[in-house]
Here is the input.
Amino acid sequence: MAAPSRRARPAKQAPRLAARARGLRLLLLRAAFNAHVVDGLAEGARAAFLAAGGRARDLAELEVPGAFELPLAARVAAASGRFDAVVALGAVVRGDTDHYEHVAREAAAGLQRAALDTGVPVAFGVLTVRDVKQALARCAPGPDNKGAEAARAALAMVAVLQALRARKRGR
Here is the structure.
């Protein structure tokens, strides 16, 4: 009996979202832990914001100690009314203990909670990877930069929420 053929899987690709930044204020929250990776994510996010028509003066950046601290800062920033969206950037790399699972899970859940509690888009730009090699591939310049993807997702969600709120008012 012949073995089943293995078809090549298509590479995962981020959706092509309309990301317009003109007139929007964006906050990049950066985890200081794994800074060499987060720097690349932030560069990608900045470039995506500017490419979408954003102005440098409408882009703020703040640093927190690590990925575990991102949710609280995101919640406070989103509730402040100063930002149209928040992009949380960090990197959690698997190690020899269970610490990775706890930090990754709580960062994801906390960032989601910040968005749901405030109604302000909070994009998940936190890498959760098996090793540093994977992290470096995802923070490198180019189309696969996950910081850029997170920024575009945040901008797209601003547009989605604006459209939904306009329809609610009968526009």
Summary: Residues 146-168 form the longest helix (23 residues).
